[in-house]
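Justification of computing resources. Each target in the renewal requires a structure prediction run like the one illustrated here; the chain below, 147 residues long, is used simply to show the kind of job we budget for.
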Amino acid sequence: MKKALILSTLIVTFLFIQLSTVYSQTTAEVDTDVEVVPKTTQKRFVKPTMSDASFIGGKTALDAYILKNLVYPDLARAYSIEGRVIARVKLDSAGKVKSVKIIQPLGFGCDEEVKRLLSKADQWIPARQGIYKVPSSLLVNIDFKLQ
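Resulting structure tokens:
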């Protein structure tokens, strides 16, 4: 009986070793078939360059337009008001003025004059994002000085 027990133990051990060897060979074969894709093949998004909107002819042309068309408000002239009005001009993708908002007001009719003046200025080069024209906004400073 002892011999049968020892023999059965040896057989079970032998079968266990054989099965574990076969299992390790099959898992090793599966591992070698896996292909690793490197991360360097992923595409990266590059943001295209942007050019800001500008007045046709640049700053000198904008200054000339303002000097030619600015009407000093009577109330500001009566009270000798001088100063600066800062306005935000919103442009659409075609370069047309959509809105004018006063950021730093001066009062006495100067703010209304700046809105009127900039709303009529339609000679803008639109901003670009890559090859596409895009809506944008920019700040414009207009100084009021009595002569």
